[in-house]
Specification:
The structure is a homodimer of 249-residue chains.
Chain A: E1 2-10, H1 27-39, E2 45-47, E3 56-66, H2 72-82, E4 87-95, E5 105-115, E6 129-130, H3 137-145, E7 149-152, E8 168-179, E9 182-189, H4 196-208, H5 216-223, E10 238-245
Parallel strand pairs in A: 3-10, 5-6
Antiparallel strand pairs in A: 1-3, 1-4, 2-3, 5-9, 5-10, 7-8, 8-9
């Protein structure tokens, strides 16, 4: 049995996230159908994370087990042939049998894009949040700094998911930068709670609006209460940017 | 009577070019409908150029005459409200009565994007030509250099348009650059013949394939024959980037 690790990339605008579900098209379903056309099998496909509807991925990792002997390079070419234009397989390699796209994952990096101009950019539709008003990225970056470290992020998790155990995560990077009118929030951590990045962004936008000060982020984390944080920002500006593994062999 | 100059920006993926036509949706038609909803008039709208189906514009200029007293800033806001997401009005100002978006235009700059990687980029669908094979941008840039200057560009004009008079144009810039896997061809001129940029790109790709040498471009220009140049490259990678006017008052 071969264990394959594939890196894919997708524009999530048309998809209701990664995970297969009833009555909605998911990336996993479309990927599974393309895979079936290539190898004639429907193996259990492990994704590195759930992603919300309409969220994008510059890098998303998949692992799957198959007896099929197709060379990795040919699998990439064939999958790209059958996949729609908004999903691409970047590469594929064989890994040890115990590798699992989700359980072996050591961390991830997300980027959230904000288009900060009174007029929308037609080329960023579905790829950035459009924020009309002036936005001081240095001020937001100061607020983002409070996310860094090991904290209980209950305040930054959608309520429904609260019972799921350990809410502690270690954020290794949280930065707000500007390039022209595009403001980006980059955040890396060993793991993310449900809607964590989007609630972080919603909270940063409260800072932008002057409704919160940067140091309020510290208080909100300590409160361990979802109602203290800002609203959940829309999914369209969110990109899973990188997925980290240790010593993939 | 006020004469208004508007700069717009659009993702051309859904549109059959600027110009109104039967049985196909054009940017001009959609713009005219939005304008009618704002000012209740359908004035004659002058565009700075025809653009082909599926071509994009980072800057496209429009002029129109109206008796309506709506302030420019409010017109921008109202048009953006009624226009679809893939078209945006950047700004608007009043200009002298003799200004005409097409006849007053002194030059334009186009950019053609080529995604040069064996795997497509889902975020560049409809926004770049996907070119699989290796591509030496320095070699292509050398070829592009031969476009610069005042030449009869008959070889770089779709046949149908040949009878339309003076085929001489002055190219002031023609450069090929690479940023990672994205190769761009930037070309500026006082005017462009029908399909001129796309045929230039088709010719550059012949150079990339080793079927032509950079210095062949000189010979092709001198031949004044469409059949000597390369094929017309697809429209999706083409962006009208800038439009130049002299002393707009």
């Amino acid at each position: 049995m071969r264990n394959l690790l594939l890196n894919i990339c997708y524009d999530g605008s048309r998809y209701h996230g990664w995970q297969i579900q009833q009555n909605a098209v998911s990336v996993q379903q479309v990927f599974q159908e393309a895979l079936f056309r290539v190898i004639g099998e429907k193996p259990d496909i492990k994704g590195c994370s759930r992603t919300d509807s309409f969220v994008h991925a510059r890098q998303y990792c998949i692992s799957l087990k198959t007896e099929h002997s197709i060379p990795c390079e040919r699998l990439v070419g064939a999958l790209n042939h059958f996949l729609p234009e908004d999903i691409a397989v970047l590469n594929c390699r064989e890994v040890s049998p115990d590798f699992h796209a989700r359980y072996s994952c050591k961390g991830k990096e997300y980027i959230y894009q904000i288009w900060n101009n009174p007029v929308r950019d037609p080329f960023l539709n579905h790829r950035a949040l459009h924020y009309w008003y002036s936005l001081d990225e240095a001020h937001l970056n100061e607020a983002a700094g409070f996310f860094v470290g090991t904290h209980d992020f209950t305040s930054f998790c959608t309520m429904d998911a609260r019972e799921r155990g350990n809410m502690e995560r270690t954020v290794t990077k949280a930065e707000v930068k500007r390039e022209g009118d595009l403001v980006t929030f980059t955040v890396a951590a060993d793991g993310f709670l449900y809607n964590m990045v989007r609630i972080m962004v919603g909270t940063l936008l409260r800072v932008a609006q002057g409704k919160l000060e940067p140091e309020d982020v510290k208080r909100i984390i300590e409160a361990k209460s979802r109602t203290e944080a800002g609203p959940t920002a829309p999914p369209c500006g969110l990109f899973l940017n990188r997925v980290f593994y240790e010593d993939v062999k």
